[in-house]
Amino acid sequence: MRLTTKGRFAVTAMLDLALRGGKNPVTLAGISERQDISLSYLEQLFSRLRRHELVESVRGPGGGYYLARPLGDVSVADIIRAVDEPIDSTQCGGKENCQDEHRCMTHDLWMGLNAHIYDYLDNVTLATLVAKQDECKEKVLQDRRALKISLVA
Amino acid sequence: MRLTTKGRFAVTAMLDLALRGGKNPVTLAGISERQDISLSYLEQLFSRLRRHELVESVRGPGGGYYLARPLGDVSVADIIRAVDEPIDSTQCGGKENCQDEHRCMTHDLWMGLNAHIYDYLDNVTLATLVAKQDECKEKVLQDRRALKISLVA
DNA sequence: GGAATAGTTGACTAAATTGCTCGGGAATTT
DNA sequence: AAATTCCCGAGCAATTTAGTCAACTATTCC
Predict the structure, then answer these.
(1) Can you tell me the distance from the alpha carbon of A149 to that of A152, in angstroms, rounded to the nearest whole number?
(2) Residue A100 φ then ψ, to 5°
(3) For chain B, how far is it from start to end, CA to CA, in angstroms?
(4) Which residues on B lie below 8 Å from A105 (Cβ)?
(5) How many CA atoms are closer than 13 Å to the CA of A37, on its beta-carbon side?
(6) B61 nearest nt, CA–C1'
(7) pLDDT, tens digit, for every residue of B18-44?
(8) How far is residue A69 from each of residues A74, A133, B101, measured CA to CA in Å?
(9) Which of B38, B40, B73, B37 is nearest to B55 (CA)?
(10) Inter-chain contact B109–A133, Cβ cutoff 8 Å?
(11) Are strands B64-67 and B55-58 parallel, antiparallel or unpaired?
(12) pTM
């Protein structure tokens, strides 16, 4: 599993999609502007997201992308898996011979670590993130209210 | 937090160090051979690990590296933090203005996710990995015994 | 039908990162 | 003194990241 800015961009974009996505599709141009990601890069990312059936597209005016599944069914791990190349995993390329001390070490252990991280990211869905987003918004409102009061007082 | 092959190499090397490290320092040449990582690359990685005080070095014949702390005090996150560049975190570069909807999203949420992953990796130490390694060895021995029995029978 | 909108695709590129070579040091042991 | 080993910097090929550009197709609206 690789965790790079690429995956971050993809998650951010998908989250934008999740937040804006009502009945109408969301345009890449809009995401590009709001999230400050270049349009062409988004095109590349969404090409993959579409091939992995995480989003669906509508062409023409009023078109754009929308999520192919409910928020709770799209995990962060799904998104990262979609935009990152297949990852050749370990250097021994799939030989599961645990006999050799080294293989066992580099292979098995790191894979276990990997699996655990995936496990976690598999359980963080867009729904989770949207919920947190709402929480955050709520907090901002509260802060503003508090600020107003302190200014008045 | 970035999770790349670089960090993987570093963790693998440190694990090798942990497994071999008795009273005598372990040479990079040895790690290089056992783990199939180029010596020069190891030198670069260990230069950072040393600067982060995760390892200590002894020069001259019979020299090498040894862990600067007990196994349980070196987490995978420590290692990755050491070899990966300071990571400029988010694009907004540290402005904590949650006011703006986008910043809040890309910044706060991803940072939370990050924190969670770190949280996990902070709790996986070399001691944890060594324990797993021993488990694995045990398994191999059992398998061999089973194989022997089935061959004899 | 024609214009505008948006996705689709492919080629190409600049910059950064990865992983490595080489060459020379400096410290330490024998 | 010689061998060993860490130390360090320059440089380099391959890959990845992030992006530009250009041509194309499907769709909607007029």
Answers:
(1) 5
(2) -70, 135
(3) 53
(4) 12, 15-16, 19, 133, 136
(5) 27
(6) D4
(7) 998 778 899 999 999 988 899 999 999
(8) 7, 19, 24
(9) B73
(10) yes
(11) antiparallel
(12) 0.83
Which residues, at least 6 apart from B32, have a Cβ–Cβ distance to it below 8 Å?
B38, B39, B42
pLDDT tens profile A68-116? 999 999 999 999 999 987 655 554 444 444 445 555 566 677 777 778 7
Bridge-based pairing state of the strands B55-58 and A55-58: unpaired
For the record, the structure tokens of B148 come out as 């022997």
Cα–Cα separations (whole angstroms), residue A145 to B6, B98, B101: 47, 15, 17
Task: Show which residues sit with Cβ under 7 A of nucleic chain D.
Answer: A 2, 4-6, 9, 37-41, 43-44, 58-63, 84-85; B 25-29, 40, 43, 46-47, 50, 57-65
Closest chain B C-alpha to A72 CA, distance in angstroms: 17
Q: CA A138, CA A147: separation in Å to the nearest integer?
A: 14
Tokens for B125?
A: 């130490």
Residues in Cβ contact with B89 at an 8 Å cutoff, skipping those fewer than 6 apart: B111
The C-alpha atoms of residue A105 and residue B49 are separated, in whole angstroms, by 20
Coil, strand or helix: which one is B25?
Answer: coil
Residue A68 per-residue DSSP state: S
Amino acid identity of residue A46, one-letter, is F
Contacts of A108 in chain B (CB under 8 A): 132, 136
- What are the tokens at A57? 């597209």
